[in-house]
């Protein structure tokens, strides 16, 4: 299971929402060997007075939080982060300096979906990669 939250200035995110979701999902599918039909993305567009970001960043500054069941190797997670930086820059035009990525993991038993705990569900993908 994986959930993605994308934060940024609303006026900027609205322009690239669909394309950015497609790029993020493409990277997750490739790096995590995630099923193509499993996409849970939430865009959180903020007003300028609700979004403070570091000096040296532009209005394209975007925060991507990926929440997933623990089990992937460090190499797999690093591959995902590298792919996100590369493809977002290439396909959306947002520079690496304006992208912040955080992967947060939780044990399967801390998840609940489809009426079960995450450690009780038979997944159609592997988290130990």
From TrEMBL:
InterPro entries: Tauto_MSAD, Tautomerase/MIF_sf. The lineage of its organism: Bacteria, Pseudomonadati, Bacteroidota, Cytophagia, Cytophagales. It comes from Sporocytophaga myxococcoides. This is 4-oxalocrotonate tautomerase. It comes from the Bacteria. SUPFAM superfamilies: Tautomerase/MIF (SSF55331). Pfam families: Tautomerase_2.
